[in-house]
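User: what does the whole thing look like in 3D?
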Amino acid sequence: MKRKITRRDALALGGAALGSAVLAACGGGGLGSSGGGSGKKNPVNVRMFVFLGGNLGVMPKAFAKEYMAAHPNVTIDIYEDSNLVGYPKMVAAKRTTPDQPFVNLGFFNAQTSVLGDTDDMWNALDYSAMPNSKDIAPALRRDNKKGIGIGADQVGILYNPSVIPSAPTSWADVWDPKYAGKLSLFDYWWYVVFAAAKLNGGGLTNMDPGWSLWRSHAKQIRALVSSNPQWQDILSNGTSSITSCFNGTGLQFKKNGAPVAYSVPKEGAIPIPVYLQSVKGNTKDQQEVCQDIINEMISPKWCAQWAETSIEAPANVKSQLSAELSGLPAFSKATIEKLLPIDWTIPAKNNTEWRQKWDQNIKANI
Amino acid sequence: MRSRSVSLNAFLAAVLLFMVAPIAIVIVNSFNSVAYGAWPPPRLSTRWYQNLADQPGFGDAAVLSVEIGIVATALALVAGGLAAMALVRYSFPGRSAVNAFLLSPMLVPKVSIGLAAFMLFLRIRVYGSFPSLVVAHTVLILPFMVTIIASGLVRVDRRLEEAALDLGASSLRVLWHVTLPQIRRSLVAALVLSFVISFDEVDATIFMVSPRQPTLPVAMYTYMQKFQDPTLAALSTVLIAATFVLAAVAFRSFGLAGFTQAMSRRAAESD
Amino acid sequence: MVTSGRGWRGYALLGPAMAAMLLFFAAAMVVLLLLAFQRVEEGQVMSGLTGANLVRFASNRYYWGVIGTSMKLGAVTVVISALVGYPVALAIDRIRGTTVRGLALFLLFSPLLTSVIVRSYGWELMLGDHGVINTILLDLHILARPLRILFEFSGVTVAMVHILLPFMVLPILGVLSQMNPSLVEAAQDLGASRLQVFLRILLPLTIQGVVVGCQLVFALSISAFATPTLLGGGRVQVLAGLIYNDVGQLDWPLAAVESYALLVLALATVLVFNRLLRLTARPA
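Assistant: Here's the predicted 3D structure for the full assembly of 921 residues, as structure tokens:
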């Protein structure tokens, strides 16, 4: 029964890929007897969710190519989408056709990973069967074994050095009235609310100081942006000269030529871990392949590649970084040590409430 | 009289300037030498056109969008034209309810329709298929077709039709030779606007297309999420240029004005 | 205006449209309706239905404010589009040279060929604090300080009118071509003033086009989310934008309720507006 679903699933997802998988399997060693024997494995097709953005697809694509060459029975489809569209599609598919997950594995940030815990989206991984998992920094392993970290981006301050000559050094600079009318934020950027709460006696479990500070400073916001090109444009053309941003995104803007620089707040940047997840509803074969793929992707080599292309800190402690990357302020030892610890279950659990507060306290008052 | 047409023409010119201004900025920006939003462009360059040509997928996506647009527009023309005829010329119980129902697809945010369609299509196992996209787009443009064609039909001179019928013309001939020529411009307006709605649709379609083969607006959305550079401005410029050439060719070779004259002459002859 | 055709033929003509509508739209709306009453707890869909989502929506004043903004944006866009679009249609209709007319139509139409993201960039440069418009007004000493248009309601309205104007002009142009020009001449020969000609002849004979144009512009502007989101800078919160967020954040029951609320409100507005306009501007 399970196997039947696999075929139909693969067929529905695209005959071409299946065809090539079958061809590859045949070429690999002829039609073997049923399972078990070495080198005679069932063709398996998996779809991997990859973040949309900059070079975030580069490492997964390179990896898939190499993995498929080494495992002729496996085909990996890359599915690039934003969390805003991709994750709802996965949940909708789970609620509609639970035995046919929309993707089989993929990259998910901490918040989506926690959200997926409550939505029951993930398979637990067998860390003991994944040799590379022992080299993953403890903070990026998960207690429930649902997924494992590959890297971590961080949120800090992005500013225009030609307008603001001395770098902002504190989270408080973001809401400093001297930048009134020059501040832009991405819509629902709860990190600055958290920072404001943290600096005023609160924290993740007590966000009220943050909300009240932003309610009174909302007028300083020139614009809430809702797309990366727009963000880059208003930072370039003088409409906005300070924002809070992912290090990776900020460096991409900089690479494009935008006059921006990333600054790490002295109170600490906010780490944004990225996990690899295997999705519930996978067939047994798919699950085996997914776990193997994930183990390979967290190897020192691929973890380092992910770090280099996505400009994130690698999760694997044995990964070697290029001098260019390790010289960035975001990757200095002091920065890493001061990262603000986040219990991701809190933003995930409070997502609806915080969004409403964002809309009603901040958006309604700018 | 003269002074009025002068002021009317001046107004038209001003409005057209308003229409073109932001588009002109887009076109100039497509020749920007840098990726970020520098204005005016520090230097001119065609690198984004080169980059556009190097992008895999935009071509196929454009073809898919044109295919969906043409098929959906054709289907909506037939279905919507007949429906407009029913709404304008017949009175029957439930007529205003039907009218409201036919307007509805343009009043529901497309993202909700997209989410519902995604679940629906998965369940009935047509997700990502061409027919499912065509049916969805047909429905999304149907309100435009119905309302615009109906607006033309209301003002059709029924006496001409009756005269033709009295003279023994079949109702199909009357439709072709008498009715349609009278609502020609409404038909063209309905066709053009419907096609462009389908061609531009992204909010619902992003849920309905298979990631394997996106439509052009979905491919553009995807590109925009990945890269922040003027490649999409270059693509928009190409679209404008291509449409201009197509429209000009159609204009020259069919001679739209002459075409309609011929149609009305034929109508007169058949009378 | 409705002639008494036999009812069954009317139904028959509706057949194909209704088939498509039932096959796709009605089915999708049923899915949304089910979502609206779904009980979701801790990410799991529970059995049984609930009216809690409806209450959650209706009892929050914030949502009503957002609905108000949506309707206001729709209304303002419709009024400006009609006031601008009617003379534009009239002017284009009177152009004698077909080439010039074709060119005018093409220019009018060209914004529809750009994606909203790219177009918004154009508007940012036009309307920004140091944008084209502010620079000109400052240079001419009409203004002392730059106008804040970008990331405000005004800027969104400008961009909405810009992109929706073709939807006003083309339907009016469609019915204008059906009008007998000698009517206007005859009225003028009889000494009617311009206003009289417009109110007594031009408008009643073209009201269908205006009604349809208003309908299309209204429908498109209240369900639009990209332009208000991109050019509103967070200041212009519309219902379609909330729905978009709720879908992305998996609050589908709320998104479904909001969609139905928007549909009902918009439909009521369109139908009432239609009736009023037809009553007041019935051809003499």
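In plain terms: Chain C has a mean pLDDT of 88. Chain C touches chain B through 104 residues (CB under 8 Å).
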